Structures are given as structure tokens and as C-alpha cells.
Amino acid sequence: MTISNKPAPNEPQLPQEDVPESAVRRRMLKAFGWFSVAAAVPFVSYNWITRSPKAMGMLKPLRDVLNTNETIARTYFSDTHLVRTFAVDDAAKKARVNGYDGLKSPIPEDWKLQIDVPGKQPLALTIDDIKALPKQEIVYEFKCIEGWSQIQHWGGVRLSDFLEKYKLGTRSGNAPSPDNTDDLFNYIGLETPDKGYYVGIDIESALHPQTLLAYELNGQPINSQHGAPLRLIIPVKYGVKNLKRIGRMFFADERPRDFWAERGYDYYVGL
Ligand SMILES: Nc1nc2c(c(=O)[nH]1)N[C@H]1C(S)=C(S)[C@@H](COP(=O)(O)O)O[C@H]1N2
Ligand SMILES: [Mo]
Asked: Which atom of ligand 1 is nearest to the CA of 98?
């Protein structure tokens, strides 16, 4: 390479070969082509935004941007965003009770966790099936959007262990895997047996390592007010998402209906 081939500092960094004139012109035309594309982008996107169907009262592309913010707030299978935990002795001896929707009828005597599996027979699991999985305990600050919080001690199984064991939450029917997050449904829906209370949980928060299917409070089986026989404990969310007395679980890409979101609260309600 000779000195004369080196471009001056403020010249475009063209390849160091001999370029015939016609090729230079072609490059300039190409560059101009890209420039016009770039210049047209604002007009095209403006048209695209204003012509798109409205979704949830917002223009869809704008709503998608907001959903992307949600995505940023989530971390797939991450162990690095754990909520603060406490010693068992720090837990309130008597946990506060709040919310009776879906709990007004007696617990069905033949209670089983019903799970809809797309394209397959539904599963019906007993509490013993759930207790057969490794037990996990957590002591953390439970927070209700109404303004109170309390350190509570819950026990159960990791929802992620459960989904892995029963190969749930994926389109393929394989166990959820961090290597194939495209295979995951976007949401898990949960409802009480009488469908009086229901929540939708984004799959990332569902798979969070501190999210439990809980059957114990302070080392004792959960009582009916707190959600016997099985409830969701999801420390990365406010209390509203911690559905008591789970009757049915299902998977969906669209947001499952959500009791408090329908009444004006944020759907995501993450901490
Ligand atoms: N089935 C059911 N689950 C529910 C509710 C409810 O009304 N019904 N209330 C939610 C709210 S707002 C809170 S703060 C917590 C309270 O749980 P706790 O009663 O165990 O304290 O449950 C959540 N789960
Ligand atoms: Mo709450």
C-alpha cells in the first residue's frame, strides 16, 4: 500500500483499492438512495402510526412501545434481580388478610389444580402432586397497592420448577428453556375455582426464581382466607397479582383478563 492511497482524515473511508469512476458514481447513487430512504422514514412511520388500528385506547404502535418498556423491566430466568429477603424471625406472626373475591364459596372438596395445555388433554393435579416438588421458602416484604406492607414467610414450590416438571408454558410442549424464549407463551392466566378473581402474569415474572405456588404460611398449611390450598406468591409484583385459591392455570400470548386491570389498575403492577 502506498502513502497516496491513504485517505485524508476527513475523507470517507473507501476501500484501499483502485476504484474505477463508474463504480464511484454507483456508490454515490447508492448512498443517495439510502439517504432518501432515511429521509422518508418519518413520513412513513407517521402514516403507519395514524392508520394502525387502535388497541386498548392507544394507537397500536405506541402501545407496543410501552409494552417494550415492560420487556426491559423483565429479565428471563434471571437470578440477578432478586427481591430482598429477611430472616424467618422477622416475619409477622399474624399475616394481614386482604381481598375475598373468589373466596366467598367454600373450597371445592374435590379441589385440583386444573391446567389447560394447548393441544392436549387438561391436567388436574392434587396438592400432593405439587408438594412432591422441591420445597422453597421465602421471607420478604409483601406489598399491597393500598399502601400497606408486611414481612411474610411463605413456603411452596417454585413456579418455574413446576412448569419445568410438567413441561408447561411453551408452544412446543418442552420444558421452558432460557435458550429458547421464543417458545414461551407470553402470559400465564390464573383464576379461582369460581372465577370470582383472576389475574394475568407475564411469563418472565412467572419464571422469576422467587415466584412460588405457595401452600404454607409461617410453616403451616395456608388457611382459607390466605388462599388455601394453593396460591400464587409473586414477590416482584404488588399483592393484587398474588392470587389466592388457584383453581385453573392457562397459557396465552394475549393478556389474560385481570380483575384489577379491568378496574383501572396497571396491568403489569411490578415493583
Ligand atoms: N382470590 C383472591 N386473591 C387475592 C385477592 C382477592 O380479593 N381474591 N386480593 C389480592 C390482594 S389486593 C392482596 S393485597 C393479597 C392479600 O393477600 P393476603 O390476604 O394473604 O394478605 O391477595 C391478593 N389475592
Ligand atoms: Mo392488595
From this structure: 19
